[in-house]
Amino acid sequence: MGDHFFSAEPQSADVRRTVEAQIWGRSYVFTTATGVFSRDRLDIGTSVLLRSVEPPSAAGTFLDLGTGYGPIACALATEVPEATVWAVDVNTRALELTVENAKAAGVSDRVRAVLPDDVPEDVLFDEIWSNPAIHIGKPELHKMLLRWLERLAPGGTARFVVGKNLGGDSLQRWMTEQGYPCERTGSAKGFRVLRARRD
Ligand SMILES: C[S@@+](CC[C@H](N)C(=O)[O-])C[C@H]1O[C@@H](n2cnc3c(N)ncnc32)[C@H](O)[C@@H]1O
C-alpha cells in the first residue's frame, strides 16, 4: 500500500513546511509534513467547522479526534486557557507535529498528543471536536466514533464536520440511532457541521 496521510508510520521523507491559518480571529503558523493530512493548508472541512462553531465558553477536558498536525487542538487550547485537550491520532508523524505546533502556540502544557490507546481509561470528555477520518470505511468509522462518544461526560457535546458527499447526513441519522441525538448546526462548501449530545 502507498504512503497515505493515514499511514500509522509514514515511510515518505519527512519534508516539513508551514501553513498559515486564521482561527477564531487569531493567526497561527503550523508546521506540517508529507504523510500527514492536508499538509498544504488548513483543510476546508476543518475551516468550515471552526468558522461555524464558537470556541467552548467554559474550561473542561476536550478531545480532538484525528488531530492531524493539531490545528483544532491548538486552537481549542489557545481559546480556553484552563482546558486540557487530548489530541488523538494513529499517525505518529501527525502526533510529533501536534507536539511541535502546541509548543509554538504556547499551549504544550495542556495539549496531550497521544495514540488512541494511550488516553487513560478514566478520562471523560466535556467536548469532542473532529474532522473524522471518513476514508477508513464505515465499519471502522462507526467503531471509532462509538469508542469516543461513549466517553462523553453526561451533558457533553461532540462536534463533527463531514462532507455531504461523504455521508454527512447518514452519519447524523446514525449517531441519533445510537443514542446520541445529533443535529445539523451548519452547512457550507459541501460540508455538514453536526452536533451530537450525550444526555
Ligand atoms: C480528516 S483528517 C483531520 C486532521 C486534522 N484534524 C485537521 O483538521 O487537519 C483525520 C485524521 O484522523 C486520523 N485517524 C485515522 N484513523 C484514526 C483512528 N482510528 N483514531 C484516531 N485518528 C485516526 C488520520 O490519521 C487523520 O490525521
TrEMBL record:
Residues 29-194 form the Methyltransferase small domain. CDD domains: AdoMet_MTases. SUPFAM superfamilies: S-adenosyl-L-methionine-dependent methyltransferases. Pfam families: MTS (PF05175). It comes from the Bacteria. One of its GO terms (molecular function) is S-adenosylmethionine-dependent methyltransferase activity. Transmembrane segments: none annotated. InterPro entries: RsmC/RlmG (IPR046977), SAM-dependent_MTases_sf (IPR029063), Small_mtfrase_dom (IPR007848). Keywords: Methyltransferase, Transferase. GO terms for biological process: methylation. This is Methyltransferase domain-containing protein.
